Amino acid sequence: MSDNITPVTFGPVFHFKGVRFFPTADRRAVELVESFEVRDDDVFLSGYPKSGNTWVQQIVSLLSTEGDLSEVNKIPIFVRVPWLGTMDKSGSGKPMPKFLKDAPSPRLIKTHMPYHMLPRQTREGKGKIIHCVRNVKDVVVSWHKMREGFEYLPSGTFDENFQEFINPEQAAFGFWWDVVPEYWRHKDDTNMLFLKFEDLKRDLRGNVVKIANFLGKTPSDQRIDEVVSYCTFSAMRDNDATNISRNELFKGQRKEGFEFVRKGKVGDWKNSLSPEQSKILDDIHREKMAGVDLTFEFE
Questions:
Q1: Helix axes of 221-230 and 204-214: crossing angle, nearest 10 degrees
Q2: DSSP for residue 128
Q3: CB of 128 within 8 A of CB of 212?
Q4: What angle do CA 74, 49, 206 make, to 5 degrees?
Q5: Which phi and psi angles does 21 have, rounded to 5°?
Q6: CATH 3.40.50.300 is right for the domain spanning 14-288
Q7: Spatial separation of the C-alpha atoms in residues 105 and 4, rounded to whole Å
Q8: Checking DSSP bridges between strand 43-46 and strand 19-21, what pairing results, if any?
Q9: Measured between alpha carbons, how far is 90 from 124 in angstroms, rounded to an integer?
Q10: pTM for the whole thing?
């Protein structure tokens, strides 16, 4: 392990402004997000956990790179796209908002924050936001698998984690049915691009072009093809820079056999959710999404 990289360690679960944050976030950083100084060329990559966030980060980081993509692709995704609500792991010991103050532009920044907790200047239109959503049933299952796989994440049985997910006060990083509609209400903001995981699965190349256009970039067809080749799920799963469970920084933090980039399928929830659990999600979804003209593919 490099001498200037600090091994991953995490603190306790905490609440901030009514949102429950898991140990991957750090209160010292989260408290600084509201006042974070945003640059015009900042790009915030947001999404509820396990909604295609790493996928979008990989696409955007490669589109934002000049030169040989194979070299850039060796840099861990959490270095290319640092997480705003965490502590820097490069040895500075600073909360990420302070660490990023001196980072070169353009800055690509990951966040799991609900929209209303994003930096104030971003909500006022500065910088760009790319938000990715995924059908809630696959999110529930993938979130459990991640909690089960990483030692540092508090986890219970699948049923216990399921019950926590559907409880607004216990859900990590906000209640899904609050977070997603709030972002959707801002889908037409000039600095917002709203994506769906299922659309990326159906037409990866078309969505890479869509993201490039939003970023104001005009890569050649050859460059687009090259980005797509690095952003297939098989390529990302086999890459230690994106499949972070294989990265040496996380040694001792994952259970044997766990893969952070797991399946990336639409409808895999059928292999984990019971009929009763599926119905519970259907009922909540119907109630909470009433009046919200956002639809999802569940298989």
A1: 120
A2: E
A3: no
A4: 65
A5: -110, 135
A6: yes
A7: 22
A8: unpaired
A9: 31
A10: 0.90
Distance (Å, rounded) from C-alpha 38 to C-alpha 113? 15
Least confident of 33-47, 131-145, 152-166: 152-166
Residue 127 to residue 111: CA distance in whole angstroms:
14
Question: What are the domain boundaries of the chain?
Answer: 14-288
| 13 touches 21 (CB < 8 A) | yes
Parallel, antiparallel, or unpaired for β 14-16 and 19-21?
antiparallel
pLDDT in tens, 46-74: 999 999 998 999 999 999 998 788 887 78
Out of 15, 112, 116, 285, pick the active-site residue: 112
Distances (CA, A) of 255 to 90, 156, 222, 245: 24, 15, 39, 9
Tell me, what amino acid is at 268?
D
Q: Is position 112 annotated as part of the catalytic site?
A: yes
| 67 burial type by CB count under 10 A (0-12 exposed, 13-18 middle, 19+ buried) | exposed
As given in the structure block, the two tokens for residue 96 are 């990420």
